[in-house]
Design goal:
It is a single chain. By secondary structure, the protein is an alpha/beta fold. The protein has a single domain, classed as Maf protein (Alpha-Beta Complex), CATH 3.90.950. It has six helices and seven strands. Strands 1, 2, 3, 4, 5, 6 and 7 form a seven-stranded mixed beta sheet that branches. The longest helix has 19 residues. The termini are close together. 39% of the residues are buried.
Length: 186
């Protein structure tokens, strides 16, 4: 059986391929703005659920729909995606020398709707202005949660990772496997 992936993320696509899931990508578009006073865990959970529900509305059969959301947080504040080089530089300056959380929520809608959250702790080494500038010039941080890509040059900034590498990439595979096992892997 196949599933639908309600995500435009090439990283989620790559990760599902790696674990041998048969899937088709569906394009969903939802408002990903944080609500006032919404805590980061509630935020990623809500966005993953909304993406999955939007995806389910687009499907014409009973195949499960998987969606995910990832947010980088510092001091319980969602940093968002770097929209431009200046955003990325500001975010990376905040993360420099600090430990931050990466929250990834995964939702699967099959016969029932289920969501799991993964929380990873990432510690950045102290970054020089030159490190930050060079990285931002590469274009890699644009559109990335927290302004970096762990699967790319951003890995050079990481001093320590406690948690899920794939979760920091955007799709925690352990939680994804658990959710899918009830739908298609049994």
């Amino acid at each position: 059986m196949k599933i639908y992936l309600a995500s435009k993320s090439p990283r989620r696509y790559e990760l599902l391929k790696k674990i041998g899931i048969n899937f088709e990508v569906i394009d969903v578009d939802i408002d990903e703005s944080c609500k006032e006073n919404e805590n980061p865990i509630a935020y990623v959970r809500r966005i993953a659920i909304e993406k999955a529900r939007a995806g389910k509305l687009l499907t014409k059969n009973n195949f499960p729909v998987l969606a995910a959301d990832t947010a980088v947080t510092l001091d319980n504040f969602v940093l968002g995606k770097a929209e431009c080089k200046e955003d990325a530089m500001n975010i990376l300056e905040k993360l420099s020398g600090c430990t931050h959380n990466v929250l990834s929520a995964v939702t699967v809608i099959g016969q029932k709707e289920s969501t799991k959250i993964n929380i990873s702790k990432v510690t950045f080494k102290k970054l020089s202005k030159k490190d930050i500038y060079s990285y931002c010039e590469s274009g890699e941080p644009i559109g990335k949660a927290g302004g970096y890509a762990i699967q790319g040059k951003g890995a050079l900034f990481i001093e320590k990772l406690e948690g899920s590498y794939s979760g920091v990439m955007g799709l925690p595979l352990d939680e994804t496997h658990q959710l899918l096992s009830g739908c298609i892997l049994t």
